[in-house]
Every structure is written in C-alpha cells, then in structure tokens.
UniProtKB/TrEMBL annotation:
Lineage: Bacteria, Pseudomonadati, Bacteroidota, Cytophagia, Cytophagales
Keyword Oxidoreductase: yes
Protein name in UniProt: Cyclohex-1-ene-1-carbonyl-CoA dehydrogenase
Residues in Acyl-CoA dehydrogenase/oxidase N-terminal domain copies: 16-128
Every Acyl-CoA oxidase/dehydrogenase middle domain range: 132-227
Assigned EC number: 1.3.8.10
Source domain of life: Bacteria
Residues covered by the Acyl-CoA dehydrogenase/oxidase C-terminal domain: 241-387
Similarity comment: family membership: Belongs to the acyl-CoA dehydrogenase family.
Amino acid sequence: MATATLDLQGLNFNLSEEHLAVQEAARDFAQNELLPGIVERDNEARFPAQQVKRMGELGFLGMMVSPDYGGGGMDTVSYVLAMEEISKIDASASVVMSVNNSLVCFGLEAYGTEEQKRTYLTRLATGETLGAFCLSEPEAGSDATSQATTAEDKGDYYLVNGTKNWITNGNSSGICLVIAQTDREKKHRGINCLIIEKGTPGFVVGKKEDKMGIRASDTHSLLFTDVHVPKANRIGDDGFGFKFAMSTLNGGRIGIAAQALGIAAGAYELALKYSQERKAFGKQIFDHQAIQFKLAEMATKIEAARLLVYKAARLKDEHKDYVQAAAMAKLFASDVAMWATTEAVQIHGGYGYVKEFHVERLMRDAKITQIYEGTSEIQKLVIARELVR
Ligand code: CAA
C-alpha cells in the first residue's frame, strides 16, 4: 500500500509500507547499535567488526541480491533509504555496506556466472564475508584506464602482479574484485576483472591508511605478486573488465550519493535539535534569524539532494538509463554534505568543534563523498558526456 507519492518527471514515486519498514529498521539499528562507541571507534580508527556482523544478520549487506543467492531481494529505493539512515550516524559503517552491496554484490549478480554467484555471491550477500572492489592504483585514480596491475594470460590461469590503493574493506574483506590489464595493446578493452580470494598465495594486505574521515572503515593497499587466478574467476568475456568497472560504478554512485545525503541530514538533525536547546542573548538560538536562515537553507538543499538520490534509485529499479541521474545525485549530494556539515559545526559554535557533539566527525566524513567512486570532477564529465550522447 502506498503511503507517500511523488511524481517526478513521469516517475511515479511510491514509498510502500515495506520501504518505510526498511527505513525504520535502519534508523533503529543506527541509533541503538552504531551510535554507542562511535567517537572511540573514530578516534582509534577501529573497524566496527561487531556492528558489521549485525548488519549481515539484519540483511543490510546483500539488500538487492536475489533471495536465490541469500539476499534480501529488495529494490534500490529500499537500499538508499537504509543507506541514508545508517549514514546519518556512521559513515564508516555505511561505506562498508555500500561497497559490499552496490559494487561487489551488484557486479557479481549482474555479470557473474552461475558458478561464481553460488560460490561467492551467497557468502557476500549474507555477510559471511565482505567484498572489496579493487580498481584504484597509485597512478590510476580518476584515470582508471591506466592500469599498471597485470593479469598475464597463462592458458588456464592468469598471473597477477601489481598494487591496488585506497581499497575499502581492504583488510576485512574475504573476496576481492580485482581489475587488471591483460593486453596493453588493446588499452581499456584489454582489461579484465578477476575474483581473488584472501589467502591466495602471493596476495598480501598492505599499509592501512590513516584517514581524515570515515576513520573506522579499513582502507588499505593490496599487493599481488605472481598470484595464480583460475580463468573461471574472470567476470565476463575477455576484455570486459573496464566496462564491468564503469557499469558497476554507475550504480555504486547511487549508494555514495545516499551516504552523502545521510551525512548531510544527520548533521542537520543535530543542528536543529541543538538550536532549540542552546540559549544566547536571552532566547533559543533557533529564534535568531541568522540560525533560522541557515537551517532553512540546509533543509531545502537536503530535500533537493534527496529527490535526486531517490530519482536515480527509482530509474535503476525501473531498468531505465540511470548513468547521468546517478552522477548528478552524487555530485549534488556530496556538495550538500560538505556544505551542510560545515554549517552544522558553525551552528554548534565551539561545541561543534569537539568530538562528543558528532558534527565535526560528520564534516570530516563528508569530504570523501566528493572524492571516492569518482570525484566531483569525474561526475561532471559523466554528466556532460550524457548531455550530448
Ligand atoms: N558506464 C558504462 N560504460 C562506460 C562509462 C559508464 N559510466 N564510462 C565509460 N564507459 C565505457 C565507454 O563506453 C568505453 O567503452 P567502449 O570503448 O567499449 O565503448 C570505455 O568505458 C572507455 O571509456 P572512455 O573512452 O570514455 O574512457 P576515458 O578514459 O575517457 O574516461 C572515465 C573514463 C569516465 C574518466 C573513467 O575512467 C572514470 O569513471 N574514472 C573514475 C574512476 C572511479 O570512479 N574510481 C573510483 C574508484 S572505486 C572506489 O572508490 C570504491 C571504494 O572503495 C569506495
């Protein structure tokens, strides 16, 4: 039964009872299980292992995967609703969730063989193990076609050598999707994506990054030295790897847009509450127009970001082209997140600058949403290309 309707460019947008139930479950989980200890985890850059285990038990790690492979069989709208609620509190936990759901599980389900799905997707969708998406390299960030990692064709296996950088779930994952160059002459059409399990000889977890934000998520370099990977672990046809990475990132960007939206909304909710508690010049600071104007502008921009995020999710659910919509949602929501969290710190004044009030963490967390899964500059490139396609 529909409980809220929004008609957006011909998209009939309904939030069902099921959507609202997912949203409430995510909100409860974030408040009750992610909020406790969050300042300490951030300070110590400690991976939320227990909380991620619970996310698996509650079905947040394979939300869109078919029940045939152990997933929740939900739509993308449900996923962004959950991402938003979890990101309001803990963006470190939500990036773990985002990478597992929309990069690794989605990529495997959309393009993997039946055997790959049975062997790997079932474990990822239930949270038995986590996935990592390994595209970035020391010299290949935005310029993702410049892969230095090689996957030499040795007949019935690939020999993988190279280094991947900035890998979310780098240490905590068990299954990695690794992009590597097989035939340099074919440029991006000579790139493959291989499924490589932790424990494979020659595969070593490297340095952990000491980050500004999302500090409790584990971001590592990964090192591959003469790693033997069976041909059966290649996703798609020979040379499909770059297309795989781009297609998967299109959907991943909806997840990060939802994360940015959640960070912005979380900071806004804290600022609104604080403005009604704190007094200055004899009245609540909310009653000062300077604060009201900030909150009004925050509420407006967050709502605009929400519409873009939901629109991208709905387009994906309706199997319509969502490449541009996803890029627009990420571009806009990440800018709103950076701006709104900065305003939330300002509204809190000196308290905003200390950790126990949470808004400084959200401000630090917001920054990465303008960088990972394609910088804001890359999103503009994607949007512009779609304008004339
Ligand atoms: N969707 C589907 N296919 C796409 C695509 C898209 N959005 N963008 C490009 N492609 C395809 C093209 O069609 C082309 O294929 P064909 O030649 O077969 O037609 C191929 O990819 C190469 O495209 P281009 O010639 O346009 O390549 P380019 O080098 O000029 O630009 C780019 C590509 C858009 C800049 C791309 O490199 C890019 O998106 N870079 C950003 C990479 C990125 O997002 N990295 C994030 C790291 S992952 C991460 O952050 C995860 C995490 O841990 C949180």
